[in-house]
């Protein structure tokens, strides 16, 4: 009887993992209020059984050191906030959602389930892309003729920047699997390659017309990394394609790109610099454990007046977004935001955790010997590494740890990295047995 119940819970957990990936695109409320809580409950019920705990720690190859680093990264900010006025004093921080890493590792325990999850994620992404394409066609005239510094962007359901950031990661996965995955059946392989190519081109098109400057920036090094892993000699060709591509872009896109350098002429870019300067000044005042949101709001508004930018900030930012308290303390940088919320103590654990992620990524090297490795794992390795790099670059100008969507996306990437780690450990154990 217990085995049957356990089997039902396991299958339900697997289905909920798929639902979490799918609902990321369609319903943030359902995901956060239904899917994630149910997944957590099922995982906790499973862990009540000794047999399941044993399976979790042994069969899933959970790295104890990495788990401790992750838990400290999650818990320390809440401890700091609790001791300094209460958990709610830091506003929108969603890193608690990193805990679903553990149910993912438990319920998506084999290659079939992992790749079914990726397929479900991609299928949902394709639906959003088709909706975004329809929106682009419907609003083309407005998009093609921007007024002043207002550049209409393209999305569907998701906010424009979340759409751009997530589609960027999907594009890197599509490119990696297009270049590195190979099905043994030649006919199936051609069909898969054509499908990947078509969806990749659609994704790239939407990324270009979305006009996210930061996504353009993070795509350049990550695409070069993927091409480098395929064949080094293709890098100059890709460079020339990128260079030539810039000159054939419509002016409504290339005009926005110039503000990456001429940032003072563009409110979107200049505001980021103002927020960074204000944030660095605030850090000097409370470097150890950070600021309460209300106190930093007051500091920011006073500093804007002091530096003569108050009217500029209100006109171009706060007058449109002031109903959300987070925007009064918005730094437009993941790392600066975290530093200001939790100080040197909090960011120390963020650094320890992400250094651990980086070291783990460097030690996974299926791509080093592509001829003798499973092409699925090679493609997944390169896709995961490039996507983690893209997420980290996006964080320079976006507060990804204060964003429900991007926290879950990064959790999924970290889960995939640890799945690859598990495969690496299993492969090494197999070699030792054979020897």
Keywords:
single chain, mainly alpha, 75% helix, globular, 0% strand, 18 helices, 435 residues
> How many extended strands?
0
The fraction of residues in strands falls at under 5%
The ordered H/E elements are HHHHHHHHHHHHHHHHHH
Instruction: Give the N-terminus to C-terminus distance in angstroms.
Output: 41 Å
**Oligomerization:** single chain
Low-pLDDT parts are none
What would you report as the Rg, rounded to the nearest angstrom? 23 Å
Choose one word for the global shape: globular
Q: How many helical elements?
A: 18
Overall average pLDDT: 87
Question: What does the model show?
Answer:
With 435 residues, this protein is mainly α. 75% of the residues lie in helices and 0% in strands. It has helices spanning 2-26, 28-47, 50-58, 64-83, 101-107, 111-138, 140-144, 160-180, 186-210, 213-230, 235-248, 251-257, 267-285, 293-306, 310-321, 334-363, 375-394, 404-434. It is globular. The two termini are 41 Å apart. 35% of the residues are buried. The model has no long low-confidence stretch (mean pLDDT 87). The chain crosses the membrane at residues 7-26, 32-49, 70-87, 93-108, 120-137, 157-179, 191-208, 214-228, 235-253, 335-357, 405-421. GO terms for molecular function: ligase activity. InterPro entries: O-antigen_ligase-rel_domated, WaaL-like. This is O-antigen ligase family protein. It is a multi-pass membrane protein.
């Amino acid at each position: 009887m217990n085995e049957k119940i356990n089997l039902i819970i396991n299958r339900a957990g697997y289905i909920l993992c798929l639902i979490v990936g799918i609902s990321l695109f369609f319903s943030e409320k359902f995901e956060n209020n239904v899917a994630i809580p149910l997944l957590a409950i099922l995982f906790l019920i499973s862990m009540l059984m000794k047999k399941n705990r044993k399976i979790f720690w042994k069969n899933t190859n959970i790295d104890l050191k990495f788990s401790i680093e992750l838990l400290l990264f999650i818990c320390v900010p809440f401890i700091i906030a609790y001791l300094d006025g209460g958990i709610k004093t830091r506003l929108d921080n969603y890193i608690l959602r990193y805990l679903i890493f553990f149910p993912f590792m438990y319920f998506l325990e084999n290659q079939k389930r992992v790749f079914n999850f990726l397929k479900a994620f991609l299928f949902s992404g394709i639906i959003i892309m088709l909706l975004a394409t329809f929106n682009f066609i419907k609003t083309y005239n407005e998009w093609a003729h921007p007024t002043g510094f207002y550049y209409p962007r393209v999305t569907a359901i998701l906010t424009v920047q979340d759409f751009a950031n997530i589609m960027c990661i999907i594009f890197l996965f599509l490119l990696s699997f297009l270049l590195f995955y190979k099905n043994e059946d030649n006919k199936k392989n051609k069909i898969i390659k054509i499908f990947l190519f078509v969806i990749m081109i659609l994704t790239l098109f939407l990324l270009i017309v979305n006009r996210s400057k930061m996504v353009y920036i993070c795509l350049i090094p990550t695409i070069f990394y993927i091409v480098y892993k395929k064949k080094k000699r293709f890098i100059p060709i890709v460079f020339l394609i990128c260079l030539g591509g810039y000159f054939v872009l419509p002016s409504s896109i290339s005009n926005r790109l110039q503000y990456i350098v001429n940032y003072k002429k563009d409110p979107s870019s200049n505001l980021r610099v103002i927020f960074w300067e204000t944030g660095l000044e605030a850090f000097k005042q409370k470097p150890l454990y950070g600021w309460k949101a209300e106190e930093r709001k007051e500091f920011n508004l006073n500093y804007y007046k002091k530096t003569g930018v108050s009217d500029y900030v209100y006109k171009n930012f706060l007058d449109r977004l002031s109903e959300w308290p987070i925007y009064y303390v918005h730094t437009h940088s993941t790392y600066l935001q975290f530093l200001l919320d939790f100080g040197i103590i909090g960011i120390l654990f963020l650094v320890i955790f992400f250094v651990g992620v980086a070291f783990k990524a460097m030690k996974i090297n299926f791509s080093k010997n592509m001829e003798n490795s499973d092409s699925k794992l090679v493609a997944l390795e390169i896709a995961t590494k490039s996507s983690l790099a893209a997420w980290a670059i996006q964080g320079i100008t976006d507060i990804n740890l204060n964003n429900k969507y991007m926290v879950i996306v990064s959790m999924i990437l970290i889960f995939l990295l640890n799945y690859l780690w598990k495969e690496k450990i299993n492969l090494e154990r197999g070699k030792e047995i054979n020897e």
